Batch of 4 targets.
Target 1
Amino acid sequence: MTPKQTQSFISLVKTRARVVPITTPIPNVATHPEDDLVLATAESGKASFVVTGNHGLQDLKHFKDIKIVSPGTFSEILQNKKAA
């Protein structure tokens, strides 16, 4: 991403993101406890995607109805939705 695209993305996240309390603990799904925390946050927030560079999480591919993708894959998904 160019610096301008990065800044636009950060601005978008700041305006659209919301802080969500963890209401659903997720123990022992990922290979590391801190990754379980990421999944618990996504589940509690009813996320559609977890976008991560963490290969351990990416290897899961999904958790319940949440897709786990790389930043590059997520960018492609967004571009395809924009084109549709």
Note: The chain has a mean pLDDT of 91.
Target 2
Amino acid sequence: MNLLRSGGGGSEGYSGHLTTLARISEDGVWLTGVKIGNAGKTVSLAGRSLRHESVLRYAQRLNEQFSAYGVQFTAVELTPDVAIEGAAGTAGPALSPVAFKLF
């Protein structure tokens, strides 16, 4: 809060980051956590996806849009998400549900 009060997060805080994040979507991908640090120069995201390929497309879009803030997502962690896998069933194309972190 002190950083925002002193203007360290810019005059609008992180609203630009959050607005940009809200405008980027990818089918089958949802976020479960967002961390913004280093006066807006670092962003870490956590989420889940029905397909690991969707996470990679989402990361590419994030890098395109967040470059205006000097933010680049250079690492990704993908782990199998058995909770989704059990609920997904077998209908439709093969799913490879994952939990992910982008930072």
Note: The first strand starts at residue 29 and ends at 37.
Target 3
Amino acid sequence: MDAAQIRQLEPKLERFLGRFADCFARKDTRAHLGVYVRGQLSDLAEKSVEPIALEAGVAPRTLQEFLSQLKWDHDRLRDRVHEIVRTEHAGAPAIGIFDETSDPKKGDKTPGVQKQWCGRLGKLENCLVTVHLGYAVADFHCLLDGELFLPESWAADRQRCREAGIPDTVAYRPKWRIALELYDRAIANGLHLDWLTFDEGYGSKPEFLREVAARQQPYVAEVPRGFTGWLQPPRVVTRPYHRGRRGRGRAVPRLASGSRPARRVDALLNDRALRDQPWQRWRVKDGEKGPMVWECKHAFLTIKDENGLPGARLHLLIARNVLDPSEVKFFVSNAPPQTGVGTLLLVAFSRWRVERCFQDDKSEIGLDQYEGRRSTRG
């Protein structure tokens, strides 16, 4: 946006920012919100604190303190976002999307930074990672919530956390636990999600799938090709067995003797039930370069749980890119058995909506240029 466009939007922007006025304890603190947001929406080449402050005629240190030290009511601000989405953007099907994003950072002072997998660079790198819940319905999408992922090495060093402004109440949680907390907050604030979808980093965790299902929430989860289960579930034995009626019995429950082991989902394509099934083509979305068409096979899969036993029975979708048959994706879903494959694929391929949010956040408003060294949750 250039200055003229921002001036045209000024009344609407002022009204919108005013909806968050009570999230700031002091009037002078609240005034800095408009300065920072206008800087993010501007056409500045660099959108870190100093160029934004200088463009607005504000002392850079003052704006830096606003972002890192002055008091915000983060919970109220997040709840206000939920309220706006709930009342102004509700619709069906509403899709919640779990995803994470990472930003490379130098040094060791930024909260949560360490050498870890950086999806943005596709390799291990010094970075911080945040977990997010996105929302998509019709042509609207946004980020509802997000939390910093605090690595175990940080959580174990409470002095380092205090120096970075991380409260003692913030501990290490696996990313999937953070995702569930984001979901629970959104639901508690009255948001309704017809579906959840997420990538294999979350779909590979049977406990996470079980927790989502326990919330009566339909989902479509991408899973890794090494995800295992049975097309025909094996029999489970619950009676103890004692050889010669003596000694310690075998553990129960357990798979019956002679049961076939669980198989990887990529190997199941060789099973007759899927091998002989023709690929069905589906237009999953319209991309910038034209329609995206994938072909799909469908079956029901009984997944293997953490104890090696049969777990939930789920839809299994195997999707192959028509333009690049080497690109194959695997999805499972707890949707009712009669749910159509087209519906499941629509949800599965909705993750681009949250990826677009990340792209806009970084390329349009410069959130990847944030330079704070203290947590704003302190």
Note: The chain has a mean pLDDT of 87.
Target 4
Amino acid sequence: MRIIADAFDLPPQLLGVERDVNRSTAAEMNDQAFRQALVPTARLLAEHLTRDAISKKLGWNDLEFVFSDAEVGNEMEEAQIQDILLRNGVLTVNEVRRMRGLPDL
């Protein structure tokens, strides 16, 4: 089980190996596994579906398949970056609102 977990960049506890799991780092290990193992695999699948199924098979070049929950990041860090870009004139208020899923002013 540990070899399989190492091969897929997953913590062993996700595969049922629980006897030597440090509970204080379990949440961090789950977050790390999500970012390093599951998100890249989801991106590859989404790119494949967009490229092969939607574009090639259906001929729709203006559509893209996206997993909405795959891009979970640190909200505070993202807000700080957007604030810096807004203050320095790199982004407009409406661009930041669109990034957050809000309508334009």
Note: Residues 51 and 64 are 8 Å apart (CA to CA).
